[in-house]
Structure formats: structure tokens, C-alpha cells
Amino acid sequence: MTTKDLLGKKLHDQATRGLKLSGKEQGLLNDWYEAQDRKEIESFKLAKIDDRETEALQKEIDSTLIQIRMTTEHIQAVTRENRLLRQEIAAIRHQLTQKMMIQPA
Fold it and tell me: CA 88 from chain center: how many Å?
């Protein structure tokens, strides 16, 4: 980190806490803000994605959403099947209990 960055951060901290800055300090802070804005704008330019990349990313997102939807539907089907199996098991247990109560020991 450069000396200008350290000074800019210090002045920014003071200004945001409501401390009074001298005219020179305010000028340095404004210069630092402008430099930060330029860095941010440059980083946005570097990070800009072209239309082909955007299209490819959207296709990947769509494909992932389809996979999620299919997995969700599979989980729901298994859950329904498990519920039916639990009901069948409960019915068989009930029948078994009834038979055991009727038969002499």
C-alpha cells in the first residue's frame, strides 16, 4: 500500500467520523477519492464480459437449473414412494399384531 493510500484512508476515516480537515487535507482527500474512482472504473472495464461469454454463462445457468429441477422431482418421487411403503409396513404390522392376538400361545 502506498503512502498516498495510507494518507487517503486516514483522511477518509477522519472525515467520516466528522473530524474537521484543513483545506490542504480536504484537497488530498478529494484527490484520493478521484484516484479510487479511477481504479474502480478500470477494474469494471477489465471485468466486463462480452455478449458471447454472457450467453455461455446463461446457458450454463439454465442447464444447472434443469438439473436442480430434475433432482428435486426425483427426490419428491422417492419421498412419495417412501410414504407409501411406510403405510404398507404399518398395515402389515397391524395385520401381524391382529393374527398374533387371535392365535393361542
Answer: 41
Q: Count Cβ atoms below 10 Å from residue 21 Cβ, excluding itself.
A: 14
8-to-14, 15, 20, 33, 64 alpha-carbon distances in Å: 10, 10, 15, 8, 44
Domain ranges in the chain? 1-48, 50-105
The structure's pTM equals 0.47
d(CA 29, CA 10): 9
5-53: pLDDT as tens digits: 899 999 999 999 999 999 999 999 999 999 999 988 888 777 777 778 8
Among the listed residues 38, 13, 37, the one whose alpha carbon sits nearest the alpha carbon of residue 25: 13
pLDDT tens track for 56-82: 889 999 999 999 999 999 999 999 999
